[in-house]
Inverse folding.
């Protein structure tokens, strides 16, 4: 419960071939999560990666470990306890740089934790040695000065010497035990260092091979990139052809719709063509009627012209008659005036008579 993840990234995991110690063997089929874990109870750091239910990396980081960048996106480190070399392939250079930076940080933290534990062990050993050394002196001081009990009762000197010898023996045994323990740990560290040195030498000898493999991989990658570029160009052409086919298909559908419309129009024209003879007959009848109407119209126009001439003649006669009537009216008015004058003359004559 005290172990918590402090950094996580994704990468392809590889392990060195245990037989050849040169070739990489993929430990995961795809990119998996690779995490740094910190154990607060043990004050230790581990790199852990799990593919499904299988643990493919369980590496405890020690101050002697070194993370090496072998290419722009690949890095490795040797684990003497697991007796293998782990390799990680990252998607980008930034992921590799962050992982390497975190490795150095965790390595320094592990170094500080080891130094603190060594200081504690040295302090405890010094304290035990001082306590072992202080026991006979305190015994001697108590034997010289005497405690309250000794002032009351002074025991035989053999008992005091025996107690002092027992204390010295216990301190020496404790020191021997600590020395054996430190020698064992030192031997373990030396063996680990030797294994790490061997692994590092093997890694250094494999670097050239890996570099050659990386160059081959880079050439293959460039070749694959060229192929991918060519395929993308072909895909673009195929996409353009698909677009062209789509446009042509849409145009064909439009033409089919127009053809259906034209078929309907043609059917309507055929139906109308069946009506045309009857309409032609009706048109012929109407034409004859129009001709007859035109003839009658001509006759009527001739009659109208004759009537207009008669009307004009009669109007002229009426004008002449009006002139004559006016003349007659004027003459009649003159005669009436004369008659009036004559009547007045007669009336005057009658009056005179």
């Amino acid at each position: 419960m005290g172990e918590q993840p402090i950094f996580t990234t994704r990468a392809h995991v590889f392990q060195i071939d245990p037989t050849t110690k040169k070739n990489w063997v993929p430990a995961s089929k795809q990119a998996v999560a690779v995490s740094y874990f910190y154990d607060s109870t043990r004050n230790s750091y581990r790199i852990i990666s799990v593919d499904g239910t299988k643990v493919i990396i369980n590496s405890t980081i020690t101050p002697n470990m070194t993370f090496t960048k072998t290419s722009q996106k690949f890095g490795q480190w040797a684990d003497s306890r697991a007796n293998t070399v782990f390799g990680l392939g990252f998607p980008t250079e930034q992921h590799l740089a962050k992982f390497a930076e975190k490795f150095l940080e965790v390595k320094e933290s592990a170094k500080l934790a080891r130094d603190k534990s060594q200081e504690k062990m040295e302090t405890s050993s010094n304290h035990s040695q001082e306590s072992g050394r202080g026991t006979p002196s305190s015994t001697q001081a108590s034997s010289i000065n005497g405690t309250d009990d000794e002032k009351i009762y002074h025991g035989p000197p053999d008992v005091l010497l025996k107690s002092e010898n027992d204390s010295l023996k216990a301190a020496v045994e404790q020191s021997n035990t600590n020395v054996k323990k430190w020698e064992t740990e030192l031997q373990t560290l030396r063996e680990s260092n030797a294994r790490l040195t061997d692994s590092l030498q093997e890694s250094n000898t494999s670097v050239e091979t890996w570099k050659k493999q990386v160059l081959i991989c880079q050439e293959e990658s460039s070749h694959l990139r060229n192929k991918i570029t060519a395929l993308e160009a072909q895909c673009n052409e195929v996409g353009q052809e698909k677009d062209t086919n789509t446009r042509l298909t849409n145009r064909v559908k439009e033409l089919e719709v127009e053809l259906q419309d034209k078929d309907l129009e043609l059917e309507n024209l055929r139906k109308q063509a069946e009506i045309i003879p009857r309409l032609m007959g009706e048109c012929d009848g109407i034409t004859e009627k129009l001709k007859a109407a035109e003839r009658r119209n001509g006759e009527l126009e001739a009659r109208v012209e004759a009537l207009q001439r008669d009307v004009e003649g009669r109007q002229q006669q009426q004008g002449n008659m009006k002139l004559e009537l006016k003349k007659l009216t004027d003459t009649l008015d003159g005669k009436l005036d004369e008659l009036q004058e004559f009547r007045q003359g007669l009336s005057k004559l009658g009056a005179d008579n």
Observations:
- The beta strands are 3-16, 24-26, 32-39, 44-51, 54-60, 68-69, 74-79, 84-89.
- Confidence is low (pLDDT under 50) at residues 134-156.
